[in-house]
Write a structure and sequence with these properties.
Order of helices and strands: HHHHHHHHEEHHEEEHEEE
Radius of gyration: 19 Å
Shape: globular
Distance between the termini: 32 Å
Number of helices: 11
Largest sheet: 6 strands, antiparallel
Structural class: alpha+beta
Low-confidence stretches: none
Amino acid sequence: MLKTSPYGHSSNLIGIATDELASYEFNSHPHALHIAGTREASAGLFAQLEQQTSYDTCGQIFQDYMCVVFGFEAEQRLRTDAAGRRRYRNSYLKLIQDWGLDSNNAQGAVFKGWVESRFGLFPNYHKQRLANFMSQEWLIYIEEKMHSRYHNNCIYMQLDLLYEYCQWVITRFHKPAATHKTLYRGINALDTHQLWQNAAGDTILSCNSVVSFTDRRSIASEFGSVILEVQVPMVKLIFFTDLLPQHALHGEAEYLVIGGQYQVKIGR
């Protein structure tokens, strides 16, 4: 095992025990989560958002703010350094796009590393099953999640703001749901996933630290013949398709969700 607790670190930035966050019981009775200091550091943004009544306007304000603060407008991204080399500015939008292409690439490791840092949850899969801190697989994950190419523009701070904005939208507009939403995931085989039954006979799925779902069963079926159905508490939602006006995952009906244990229904 990774450590005495199978879920994660003993500390995080959300103010509750990682084991509590990871438990399926938390999903049934969730409460608000906040990444320490994030809203306070961007108080002006959230004050401006509170003055708006339009969902679409809020999304544009957020994206404009991120462009200015983190400097990844198209014209800035094309600037070069003193040696004439093109500067690369990593962005939350690029990370979301790359996650959609392959959650096991280096950008996927950065996403998992952010969840580990902020929420305390260990990943249980990156390229292959992660089972031991001393394994080659774990070392590859560590190397990729810390790659300097993806940490040159405060990427964790960007993701902090994305999560807090997502939670603000849910509270303000009750989108995509007020408390819970039924989501689906298609897989090819059950034996590649960590499933067990609790004392009540419910099937529990141990998800990766961050995992993709969809709200359309038809889309889930395109990714596998076995359909997993879960009730996701909105406090565990990082991103959903309609959150922002501009991003690369429109049409995918994709939801990025903080992992842990989930009570699951299995269908075909």
